[in-house]
């Protein structure tokens, strides 16, 4: 074995880092984000109900569609020709990106579509709903009045599955092999269904992401705000906020948890001392499959955007991105991270500020 | 400059003072007359001491009552009575037409929309306090504080004015199961009755708050119990008269109160309310206690305040909270107003639904609405209130009152006027400064008065 020449030794790998590269302002808060594979075009679901196509290079935004309430989700179907959006009007719109015309509209729910996901193989679109209604003296959620998890054929819009799951169901995600779909609710319950059989595969509850108010309010708040399968399909990640005596203070610990979705066994969670306080509502895996980001709102602490090592759970890099982050997406090449943001609304002299933002960060120190 | 005292409208703040309300004066005189007579009778008959059927009958016939749905934490006007469809301030909930042409409520208030012709909505409240404790005090007492003097809360004033001395049911009942509550907790720990005295403070029930030790011991018959009580009352009354003892008088008062509570203990048992009624109102604590409030006023309680901590303070998760809270409130008001009307009690029962202020037209970063006292809404219905009225309004985004605004003094003048109580009567509190029920002769909101 040859001696190592210190002068020719390889440069140690750079520390993982996110660097803000660009900011695009939008009139209304962005609640969900999608990117084309080349990362040149973004699609934003906005609080004013609009679905915007945003050209990253120029920052130009063009409204593609509109919901009668908040637009809450966007999903680009494989091939990049169609976009599906969801809204608090309970409607799913299929938009043809070439013509800008609406192809189809489906009333998926009577209440809000809280979240939307498309399966990686492009066959399915899932949307989740459910209104929290008082179900007991202590305000346990009442059973739903409609199926809260629905899966549609992404090509035809036909309803494939309808499942009852205790509402409100706030997050949904497909497995990387497109064979399963997972959903999470207010009470910290998570369920996984098999898309082929339509049967539930596993279901469990984590008490660490929901709260019953002791101080101000005798009801539940919080729950699962985002779900993401690990790219190898083995684990399911959930995020939200740790339990609080006063959930209306919004000061629970910033928390993700990982599970073996086959058994519901908790594997790991945000490490002690590596998080501040605030609601986390975005999870995204880097294309290297080894890292993920969690983001949301900072109540107290030093960060609201952090990059984690999936194997160890360690917080590798974190920053205070200044505004609430509602969604996060890596570009396919892993070089950029797109963030959807919602700023404080301001009304001055009868005019509203532009309170929507898309932020683009360059990613360094990670594999492709 | 303080207006001169009106000799006809002195309010008893201390023992021995007189009340200006004709109804109440009549009752009091009857009661005092009867007291002497009953005392004479009691020497020969232990049972039925102070029993005055004629008095009780008249009291019931002329009774006016009030239920305050205290929406502590400050509810949003946008998701209740003053929606702004199509505006940025609107939030995700739609607005819907109501039974009143051209009037819309939030879609979360769909049941109230069907009885809008029975309600009076004030959309132009504007007050000065933007913080909870100050706001809670302001909207419960009707005036800014003037330390060290403590103005009684609305419930205490109405307990004094609408209550009856022989009422077995407490004159002021607070139904609130939440033991905590930040500023509301602080308020609850304070002096509610102020210069009227503790006898006009609330009896608190709900959740773990119960009226303890009011069940007669199983081995004691009702006759034995009454005989013992009558003997105790006779002896302590004699002691009180002979010695001029305030302590004995106080003890007598406490025993009378306990006796009243014993006779009406069932009214405080939610389990004893009809199952169908409980189902109609809904399972939540606020709904169940509102039903209980209806039951209590039906059975003689002049003032009941229903609350449930301060859940309306939605600095975070505003829409996520209101998706649940507002439909419950909507149904509760609908059931309550409908029930009162069906029972022929709506014209004699004032229902007020309000909090300490409203919420901002804008969302903060925590997806919440913050405190806002510049333009907010409340609802009144029933006794002395015009039906099917919407008063005032706000600008396009709900940021400012459009036209005349009303404050807490206008509101209190309205409530007192609606209940037939002189809003401007002076409190008789000895050498202390002059205080009126409503200061500055603030006008009631005449548009809502029947």
Description:
The complex is a heterodimer of chains A (368) and B (450). With 368 residues, chain A is an all-beta fold. Chain A has a single domain, classed as Methylamine Dehydrogenase, Chain H (7 Propeller). Chain A has no helices and 32 strands. Chain A starts with 16 loop residues before the first strand and ends with a strand. In chain A, 55% of the residues are buried. Chain B has 2 domains: 343 residues, 3-Layer(aba) Sandwich (Alkaline Phosphatase, subunit A); 52 residues. In chain B, 36% of the residues lie in helices and 14% in strands. Chain B has 12 helices and 15 strands. In chain B, the strands form 4 sheets. Chain B has an 8-stranded mixed beta sheet with strand order 7-6-8-2-9-12-5-13, sandwiched between helices. The longest helix of chain B is centred in the last third of the chain and has 25 residues. The radius of gyration of chain B is 23 Å and the shape is globular. The N terminus of chain B is likely disordered. At the A-B interface, loops of A face helix 10, helix 11 and strand 10 of B.
**Approximate strand percentage of chain A:** over 45%
Instruction: Find the structural class of chain A using helix and strand composition.
Output: mainly beta
State the low-pLDDT regions of chain B, or none. 1-61
Q: What distance separates the N and C termini of chain A? A: 31 Å
Cα-based radius of gyration of chain B, to the nearest Å? 23 Å
User: Quick check: average pLDDT of chain B?
Assistant: 84
- The oligomeric state of the chains shown is heterodimer
Instruction: Please identify the structural class of chain B as seen in this structure.
Output: alpha/beta
Q: Order of strands across the biggest sheet of chain B? A: 7-6-8-2-9-12-5-13
Poorly predicted ranges of chain A: none
Strand tally of chain A is 32
